[in-house]
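Q: I'm writing a short methods note and want an example of a predicted protein-small molecule complex. Could you take the sequence and the SMILES for S-adenosylmethionine and return the bound structure as tokens? Please keep the output block clean; save any remarks for afterwards.
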Amino acid sequence: MDEMEWCEMDTETQSLARAYDEKYRLGQYFKYRGWLYRPVVKALVKKANLRAGSTVLDVGCGQGFFTRLFADLGLKPVGIDISGEAIRSAQRDYCTSGARFEVGDILSLKYQGAYDCVFARGLSLYNTKEFNQRHDVTDALLACLKPGGMMIFGYHTNFCPRKKSESWIYHSYSDAKRHFSSYPDAKVYFSLRIEALLLGRYAFRFPFTRIAALISRITGVGGELIAFVPRSPLVAARNSSELDANRQAQ
Ligand SMILES: C[S@@+](CC[C@H](N)C(=O)[O-])C[C@H]1O[C@@H](n2cnc3c(N)ncnc32)[C@H](O)[C@@H]1O
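A: Understood, no commentary inside the block.
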């Protein structure tokens, strides 16, 4: 682990990084299936109008599975994660893919204004009950975008009341709608993922969201909350005035 990065993390982030180090040390922790997620990432890229050569910051990239899928499509992704073990695993498995990986905390100000796209899937900072009211994380992610850039949010969930987890908060569609209602032009969907295989970018449409949510509620099958959040001038202005205030306070 890069000593500087580690020193800059607060103690809460350091202990989260240690917990993830333990999980990732045992091999591939999330056993993702390429046939299921490859079409999802392709559909996200198309829907967000990204092109070959577009730069992507994959925040909380874990062991790099999704970062690699962006690289396979000709984009230039950088995966960052607070877990040194995650980054070592990603570098080992995907070093030839064209993706880059580094230890990094998204709450440091290092990545500001540099990317065409910020992708955050399952980022732990969203695994909180305050998700629908707190905006600091999304604001920090949007600040990493170039003007005109696009944030893509992904979060595994399911809408069946019987499904419960000690460690993961299954956000509802309305939680996500409420959270992103503060961002002009943000669009929020829910997908069972299989639609992307059949429909490509058209999977992200409201009628399909409704059908997928109903299926998830009845059967308990999981899916992804997806949001496309453009960096609008309004949000950029809000970010920069908050940054100025922070700098003055330091
Ligand atoms: C549930 S995992 C998801 C990993 C990966 N995105 C995926 O979908 O498989 C959450 C990841 O967020 C990372 N993370 C948590 N806080 C972070 C922060 N402040 N900056 C960067 N990564 C963070 C964790 O280390 C962990 O790898």
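A: Remarks, as requested: The first strand starts at residue 55 and ends at 59. The two ends are 27 Å apart (CA to CA).
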